[in-house]
Design brief:
hydrolase, alpha/beta, metal-binding, 6 strands, 7 helices, P-loop_NTPase, globular, Rossmann fold, single chain
Length: 252
């Protein structure tokens, strides 16, 4: 009887577990963000960003929060590691896509000017990095295992931006325009698609990102301060206006 009661109690009080896949292009600070999260929630000193080595495989973090267990997979962004990303998709409840906030500063600095068809930094390294990151994300979003998966876009390195006021809105608008545009279709069999040789790849239900629906948002973060609190708050907190992004992730 004792074992039955304790077993029932353990089952009733068991917290759900959610898997968050943290990915992005190489060099945007994914592992530094994870290190900061560890320091905040595990109450231990964080490694300085200059001592965090590039991820060649994966970093894992388990957090036991008041209502849920949150499991992070931090995967490297190099071309060789990106071929392994899709192995984690089936078990992912949310995607944390990390970008470098500095890549969006040229857009932000010209946000109050008349819109043009050409980006203000076209032809620069910043423009190329921003577009390359979008290409990776668009391919990821078209994978059938991630259809309707909630996505949190984390703009890292905000501490290195001279002015961040309104930057979050600029980044949101850029991604919104990209998701709604008609030229974001991704050919599954294209030679430059990092998932083209994935044996488990199945044809997506729609061939255009603009035809698919995603719950997504943008937050600003830094590996040097407590801005990572916003990241976990968005993932786990239910408000009167929006359920926590993970609270109903399993219903998709």
């Amino acid at each position: 009887m004792y074992h039955l009661i304790t077993g029932l109690y353990a089952e009733w009080t068991k917290k759900p577990r959610y898997n968050a896949l943290m990915v992005g292009a190489a060099g945007v600070g994914k592992s530094c963000l994870l290190e900061k999260i560890k320091s905040v929630y595990l109450k231990r000193p964080a490694l300085p960003p200059n001592r965090v080595a590039p991820t060649v495989g994966q970093n894992v973090l388990e957090l036991s929060l008041p209502r849920i267990h949150l499991h992070f997979w931090d995967l490297g962004g190099s071309p060789s590691v990106r071929t392994l990303w899709s192995k984690y998709y089936d078990e992912s409840d949310a995607v944390v896509w990390v970008v470098d906030a500095r890549h969006f500063l040229p857009l932000h600095q010209h946000a109050d000017k008349s819109p043009t068809s050409q980006a203000p930094d076209a032809g620069t390294d910043t423009f190329a990095a921003r577009e390359a990151s979008w290409k990776l994300l668009s391919e990821l979003l078209m994978h059938p295992s991630l259809e309707a998966c909630p996505v949190l876009i984390v703009a890292n390195c905000i501490d290195e931006c001279e002015s961040s006021e309104g930057l979050e809105g600029t980044i949101k608008q850029w991604f919104s325009d990209k998701l709604a545009s008609d030229d974001t279709d991704v050919a599954a069999a294209a030679g430059d698609n990092v998932f083209a040789d994935d044996e488990a790849y199945r044809a997506p239900s729609t061939s255009m990102l603009s035809e698919r629906e995603y719950e997504w948002d943008v937050v600003l973060a830094s590996a040097f301060d407590g801005a990572t609190n916003t990241l976990l708050a968005f993932l786990t907190t239910t408000t009167s206006e929006r359920p926590g992004i993970l609270q109903d992730a399993r219903t998709r």
